[in-house]
Each structure stands twice: as structure tokens, then as C-alpha cells.
Amino acid sequence: MKIRTHVAILIAVVILSASAVAQQNPQADAEYLNMRYEYTLSRDGSVTMTYSHALKLYTGFAFTRQYGETFIVYNPEWQSLEVTKSTTEMADGSMVESPANAFNEVLPRFAHNITPYLHLREMVVTHTGLEPDATINLEYTVTTKPGFIPGLMDRVLLAQRSPVRTAEVVVRVPEGTPLQYQLRNYGEADPTQSKANGYDVYTWMLSDIPLVAVEDHQPSMWEFCPVLAFSTASFDDIVKHAADPASADEITAVMEQGAKAAVEDAADDIAKLSALQKYLHTHVATMGGGLAHTGYLPQTAKQTFARASGSPLDKAVLFGALCKAVGVKAIPALISDSHVGEGDPIPCLAEFTQAGVLYEGKVFDASSVQHTLADVDIDGHAYLPLQRGTSPVIYQAGRHNVVTKSDWTITGTGLLTGRTAVEAAGAPGSELNPEAFGKTAVRRLSKAGWGVKASLEDAEMRDDVTECEVKLESKSPYSANGGLVQFALPELGYIDALHVQTTSAKRTTPTNLKIAVEEEHLMTLHLPEGMKPLRLPAEVELSNSVGSVTSKFIDHISDIEIIRRISVPARVSPENYGELKALIDVWNDPQHRGFVLEVQ
Question: Which pTM value belongs to this model?
Fold first, then answer.
């Protein structure tokens, strides 16, 4: 009886404790009671950054999966790290100091096998004494030598996957030093300015920042969450820093021979760029870590090629050098990782986390094989050509237009034959690799059912428009079940490829479809004598502030005409998610993805 009593008391205590914790912040696993960044630009050009937080844990998930460890990456050749506080205040108020073995320095996973960056280090701080209602107190300082970056610059993400009660950013610069800054996605919040010990001090205080939920097709948090960017440098300073030395684009005879061999069969500059992308992807590994860990100081093209690895910026420099060797005028460029929104970007290297080359207004990724410009999510992002006297340009991708025209026949012997023409065009520059574009169409059409075998008849690119034609032929007749045959439409367009799944839950963050899309899919299906549709879907036409969708199935007795169109933007605000959902739900409706044929 005593054991049962003790168990009952224990269960009651646990329930009451969980209830009390849930009342503090019912939607969160944890909460930042405070978060603080402090930056100082010394007169000798060195930079000191001190970060601290008090993080209260509410659930087991918070300390077993989410916040049990802190990871701090730094570059020992330029930076030093000191963890000045790592304690846990337990639920009963007692303090637990992190022991010596809670601090372990390792090679960052992204730098494994990347020869130029094997010197990078990651401090793993394991927090101890964790339990529900405990608070983690952490503070560390990173000191950076002069020359690693030009002046003082950084950007700070002020929202997290847990709520932030208060966030503070303090920036100190020598008195009279100009400081550009930009606070996005928070409204008006000018800094408090003061002077102390020969320094100009800027202080931002933000409060009650809600948690950022994980949602499908969510853009980078840098795009829609509160972000503070600041800089003492100019764009000329940045370009000079990232584009030097002058010998960066020099290559060896072996490199030139390899580049020319790679583009030997290329018919034009676009084909050459695609071939060189594939060549780089095959021969040079990419460091997946941030460019900030490298100081945006690129290797020369010869160094990157010799070491067969490099950062995205290293590879962009190499890409540009190889382009020059084969007669293509492509310029290395830095690319921002988020939509810059209103206002011009400020000269802050931390905003530019990607790199590629520019060719006639088109951006080519230096770190992947790219079959379409839609592969690079840069619509509305800024790119900075690494040429003196340049300023960042906002990339406007425009609409990605896709048109398919299918003429299919079900023969009297039950076989499915026909042709489908696919065309892609628009401001993105359409598809960059006609052969790969055609193979993608073949792969998708081969899933049309009925034992269909698809084969590519033709693929070409003309005047920024890519076209291909695919022939279809089934090898065996359909199989009727009770005199009924199911016919399903193929998935051909960009929207189908995204596999957007909607939810009835309230959306709290933007939806990112990467690029604005306008699609039209037309099909005529010829039926044999004795076959007719059992029932065709009702016609749907819907237009709202987000876009439009049309789905029509027209019975012409011996033919069925199918017309499907959809138009959606690249990004949709959470307030307009319901309208996007209405469009996508019509597009994905199983009733409009096929129909049943009756065999008489």
C-alpha cells in the first residue's frame, strides 16, 4: 500500500510540474529568457564578438534532442575562442558547472576531406544537469585578427525555433567610424546611440519574438525573421577583399586542356557553362560550411584545382577562370541566401553566403550540376559581381513558363501511343541543358502507366526556349477490371515536381515555391470504338489574389480534350496561404488527375 501511495504521489507531482511548465509557454519546448550579441571593432582592426544567452528548458525534447549541446565553429588561423560561462541552473535553483570533459574540439563535419579547410575547428559544448525547468547559461567570445574581413560586419538572426523574450545587440566602433545598419522584418526599432571610452555605441533591444515553426516549403529564416545586418565597410572594400589576388584566375596548361576537352561538344556559351559545371562537380569537392569561416578569402584557381576541393567562392573563382580559358565571359559573383525585401542591401559579407558566375544576367551555381535556373533559389536575392566599381543587383527571375501538348491514342487493340511536346521558357532563362530536360520528360512520361515506354525524339534550345518531343508506346494492352479502365494524367510540370502538400492548419510563415510559375498542359486523347468515359470531372476555374487554376475535361464523343492551367507566385505570405491552398487543392484533386473509361 505504501508503494502505491508513493507512486501516486510521484505521478501527481510529475503531472503538476508538467502543467506548471506548460502554462509558462504552452507552445514551446524552450524559451530564450535573454540573448545578447556584443561586437567591438578595435582601433587596430581586430574584432571581438561576445555571445551569451539564458535558455530555459520546458520539455524532454528540448534537452535530449534540441539544446543539449552548443556548436561553435571558428578559424584558428585567424580567430581565438574562449568559452567564459557554461552553467545550468536546475529546477531547484542549484547551479551546475560544465566539467572539463564537456568541452571537446573537433573538425567540423563539413570540412572532412576538404584539404584547404582541415584547420577549421568546432567547439562542442555539452550542457550538463539538464531537466525540465532548468536554465542553460552560456557565454563565449571570438576574437578575430585584422584582415580576416574588411572592418566590422555581421548579421544576426534574432528569431529562433523557440521564443525569445529579450534580444540585445551592441555594436562598438571607434568614434567617428561610419556604421551602416539594417533591421529587417521587425518594424521600426532604431538603435540607442551613445559614446563611451572613445567609441560610438549602438544598441538594439527587441522583445517578445515568437518562435518560428517548422513548415513545409519554408524559405530561409533569414528571409522573413527579424535580422540585423551592419557594416563599417563599402562594397568596393568587399570586392577588393574577395577578388584579390590579381592572379586568382591564372590557370595551368593542364587545367586549360581539361576545360577545352569538357566543352568540346558544346554548341554555344550556355552549353559550355553547363559542361564546365559538370566538369567542376566531377573534379572538385565542395566545402558545405559557411563562407564566413573562410573570411571570404578565396584560393586561387590553381590552388583549388590542385587540391581538388574548395569553398563555393573558391569554386566560383575557378569556374570563372575556366570560362575565360574557353572564351566565355563569365564573372565570379557572391549571392545572398535570402530575399532582400525592400531597400538596398548593405555592404555586409555575411549577407552573401553563396557564390557562382554571372553570364548575361544569368546566375550559374559553382557547386552543383544545374539543369535549370530554377535549381538555384535566388529570385529576389542580391548578387554582387566581383569586379571593382560594381554594386549588388537584385535578381528578378520573372516567370517560369511551361507548356505541354499531348496527342495520345488508345488503339483498338488496347495499346496507348502518342507524342508529347514540352516547352519551357521565360525570364529564368528556361532550361540550360536540353538533353537533361528531355530525359526528365521521358522519365516522367514513363510513369504514365499502361506499360508505356517513352523515348526522346528531339531536344533543343532556341532563343531562350527549350523544347523536346517524346514518343510513347505501350508494350501491352490495358487490363480492364469489370469493363472499367483507369486513366491517369502524367506529372509533367514544375508544380507537380515540387509535391506541394497543403494543410488546413493556420500557416505562420511564408511559403516558398522558389520561382513564379505559369503552366499550361493540353491533351487530346483519342478513344477507340466501344470506349467512353464513365464520368468526367466537373469543370473548375478559380482565380484569386494569389493566382489562378483551370481544369477542364471535355467529352467530344470519340476524343477527350483536357485543359489544365495554373499560375502561382514564387512566394506567398502566411496571410494569403488559404488562397494558395485553394489553388493547389484544385490542382492536386484526385478527381482532376484522371478518370475512368468504360469498355463496352
Answer: 0.87
